[in-house]
Every structure is written in structure tokens, then in C-alpha cells.
Amino acid sequence: VLHPTGPLYDPQTGQLKVNCVRALKRIFQLCDLDQDGFLSDKELNHFQTTCFNTPLQPEELEGVRKVVSSKIPDGIDASGGITLKGFVYLHALFVARGRMDTTWTVLRKFGYDNALHLREDVVSAALGGLQSQKKAQDQVYELSERGNAFFSQVFRTFDRDGDGALSPQELQEVFSTCPAMPFLETWQRSDFSTTVETAAVSTSKPAAEANASASGRQHQQQQQQALTLRGFLSLWDVTTMQSPQTTLLYMLYLGFKGDLAQCCQVSRRRKQDLKASAGGFTGKLSRKVLNCFVFGTKAQDAQAVLGALIGNDNISNISSSLSSSRIDLAADGSGTLNEAAAAGIATGGGPAGPAGGGGGGGGGGSHKTLVMHAFASGGQEGQQRELEALLSKPERLQACDLALFAYDGSSPSSFGEALALLKRVEQVGSGLLPCCLVATSEKVDEGVVGTSLAVCQALKMVKPFHLPPSSLSKGPKGSAGNSTCRLEVMRQLAKVAAQPSLSIPQTDERIAQQQYQLMVRRLTTGLAVSAGVVSLALIAIKVYSSTNTAAAEGDQEQHDTATN
Fold it and tell me: Are 328 and 305 spatial neighbours (Cβ–Cβ below 8 Å)?
């Protein structure tokens, strides 16, 4: 059927179906060129010409306004423009009068199929540039600055109350032009506080009370977790890393205008950023998204690190083995907060909204996102199998930019187990993997503190981090090693991940391997130079011989001529 009614209209309710409204809303937003919330006569005629190749006459425009205003008073803006409600009502009217062909012409013009999803040819054309971007194990897909700016603008547009966080209701509105929220595990949860940064916001909810006021109702304040801008962007960082196609597809549904290929990029390879030297490796990773593997001898130790770094001290709620956190850095990477970056930069290509605000991690400035994966050597059998599978395939560790080893700072045995696990991981690694020790308990044993400092000094690693639940407060906490507040720990970890040479364990085996590799490189270079010298000598001899032969032949010819 060319113009089926089923996908558009529910005869029992007499209303357009949800997916039809979602599609019409997206079309409305795309046609609202100045993003002022209504279609002016100029925009309405642009829409009419796009879909039906002919503009509306002034009297026809006036007729449309009269039809809408007679049934939907707020379907017409004060200036006479058609609002979203008015736009949807017009199509409901078309369908109710049997003019499904009109609505289907509009839907197909904007790329929709019979299921009211974007057609495969439309999606393939939009994502075509991604096919040419292949990545190696030590590379990641990440959002470009333009992609970051788009999602920052989406956040500001739908943060209706301007509190710097997206409530569950506001988040639903973000995806109101999409068939559903992304099906990745990262998005399929009711409480995002277990995976990314959130903030508690107050909501007013009417509740019946026995001793209520004369109205019989009163409002009670309730707290709910809402996504901060950093949390929102972290989710898209993880989505892009796992499935860049999903990110770009949702950008289409969210109304992005422009070349999607400019919104996603493949990071440089680690060996391109880091240069080998006699002391190991120098240089910085240019990528924005950093894979951080958190190892613990007990699952709760690793989960404590995940919870602390996203600002959740309720360890029992950290059931996921994956979380992410974004931190703003100064342009020079020194680890100080960059207020300009925190404000964000809005550029073209996204829904309109108030400029600036909304928390840190916007489209501009410098930022790093730590995507954290938890592994435990003790605990559930499945967790142990996952760790052993990781260590049995060294190539999987190539995707890791930073390894954290969590332990109970009050237990010498826990620290010893973490150190043994560090040695196992280091032996499997490529020699480019920076490692850090992290104590998670509130109390620490002075003997463990002294031993951990000595170990880190001997292995030329950064001092151990102390990340107890109390580190979630805004002020620094004085205790073992680099103990400080959560954000400062985040900055320091991001710095170590970006500059691996700061904390690559210098074990005896690793030093011996580096010396051997250096000797091989020098020998190879020496042989290449020697081969080059020999080649030049042979060429010179050949040229010299050719010159002498030519001269001898010339002399002989002159002698023969003189004799004759």
C-alpha cells in the first residue's frame, strides 16, 4: 500500500500514533530554520515548496491559520506563525479526512519509510563517510569538536528550567523526535548515577494530605537524579566509542544539519603520538576519550573506584562494569579547570537554545573522558573469566590507555594482591601502558602507605591515589599519597593517561626489554647507514670506472686518427 493508514492513525483513540507525531515533530524542527518555535510564512512556504513544488498563496496561508486557530488556539503564534501543535493538528486533519497521501508525501520527502523510521538509503548516504574510517586496536572513535558542540547545544535546548541538568522528563523530550532511546546498555537504565555524573535536583509533586490546605492538595519537594552536561556528553562519548553509527544516526534524528562525517573521528594511533627514546617513551596522547581499565582483587574495590570517579559513593548501586566521567582541562594540559571550556561553545548544526551555561565539558576548550571498565580477579566466576580472557589476549590490552589497581588501603594482603595483579597485567602489556595504584578505603594502614610509596618510587610510577568515599566532597582530603578531591584525582589520572611515560612501571624485565629494543634499533640504524655508505662507494667506483673507460676510448680514437 502506497499510503497506509495504520502507521499514522489510531481509529480507536482518534489520534495520530506516537511514531507519526515523533516524525512530524522532527520535520517541524528541521523546517523551523530560525528555531523560534513556529513556522513563519516564509518557512511554511519553504516547506510547501520542498514537499509539493509550489508555494501557498497569501489567501491560502490565511485559510490555514483560520482552520488551525478555530480548533487549536495555541496552534498559532502571536505573530501568526504555525506552532508545533498547529502543524501536527493539520496532519491529523488530513488523515481524518482521508488525505493520507498528503502526510505520506511529507514523510517520504524527509526520508521516512512505512515503519516511520529513516529509510536505509537515507541513513547509508549520511553515514557513508564513516565507512572509510578504519581503526586499529589502539585507536578509538570519538566525537569531533563539532560533534561535541552539537550535543552541548542539544543539552542547553532541552534544559528547560536552566538548572544545569536534564531531568528524566527533559531527557525524554530530547529523544521525542527519535523512534526510541539508543538500545545500548549505557542508555537503557532508569538511574544514570551508576554510570555517569548526575546531580540531585528538586521536583515539586502534588500529593494528597489528610491535613491539606483548603484546595485539598499540597506540593512536596522530592529529589531525583538528573544528567549534568558532563554526564550527558560522557554517555555520547561511550556511545561513539562503542558504536559510532548509532551516534551519527541519532544526530540525524535530533535534527543535525550538515556533514555528519565531520562529527566523528578516529584518534591517532598510540605509537604515532608516543616516541621511543633511551628512557622509554615520550610524547602525549592527542585523543580525547581514554580507555581506563580498573582492576581489583575484589569486585567491590574496583566498583568503589568507578563510583568515586562519577561522584556516587553508594557502592551497592554500582552494578555495571562500565562507567565514564568527563573532566575539563586547561589548554596546556596542566590539569587546572578551564572556565572557558566549562561554559561550552555553541556552533551551527544543532537545535537552538540559550548560549553558554549548563555545566562543564562543552564543545570548546580541552577535555578528557575516562571510560572505565571494571575487572576483578576475585568474586563472581563470570568476573574472573572476563579478567582471564583479557589477560590471555594481549591485543585486547592495546585498547587500554590507563590501568588502575584498586585495593583496601587498610589491608596489607589486599595491597599485595593488587601488586601481583599489576605485575601480571604489565607483563602482558606492550610497555606503553601507564599504571596507578588506588586505595579505596576510608582508613589506611601506615605500613601499607609506606610500602606503596616505596614500590611506586622503585618502579618510577606516580604516587598512589587515595579515593575514599569522603573524597566526593568539594574540598581536599589529607591522607596517603595523592589523596585529594574527586575532580583533582580525575585531572591527575587524565594527565597520566595522556602522558604514559609518567607512570609506566619500570620493572627489571621491562628495562631489559627496552635496552634490547634500543640496541636492535641502533644496530638496524647502523646497518642501514653502513649499507648506504657501501652503496654510495659502489656507485662512485662504477662512475669512476665508466669515466676512465670513456677517457681511454677517447685517447685511443685520437691516436688512431693521428696515425691515419
Answer: no
Q: Which helix (H) or strand (E) is 105 found in, with range? A: helix 100-109
Contact 418, 384 (CB under 8 A): no
Supply the DSSP symbol for 258.
S
CA gap 466, 488 in Å, rounded: 11
Amino acid letter, residue 359: G
Is the pTM higher than 0.70? The answer reads: yes
Which residues, 6+ apart, have CB-to-CB distance to 170 below 8 Å?
158, 159, 160, 161, 226
Residue 232 amino acid letter: F
Each residue of 173-203: pLDDT tens digit? 999 999 999 988 889 877 788 888 888 887 6
**DSSP assignment letter at 518:** H
Strand partners, 513: none
Instruction: Please tell me what DSSP assigns to residue 462.
Output: P
Best CA proximity match to 309, nearest among 332, 288, 292: 292
pLDDT digits (tens, 9 = 90+) for 102-150: 999 999 999 999 999 999 999 999 988 887 778 888 899 999 999 999 9
Q: Quick check: 264 and 252 in contact, CB under 8 A?
A: no
Cell numbers 552541548 correspond to: 152
d(CA 413, CA 415): 5
Torsion 408-413-418-422 (CA) sign: positive
Q: Strand 435-439 and strand 465-466: pairing?
A: parallel
| Residue 468 identity (one-letter amino acid) | P
Q: Which of 275, 201, 208 has its CA nearest to residue 231?
A: 201
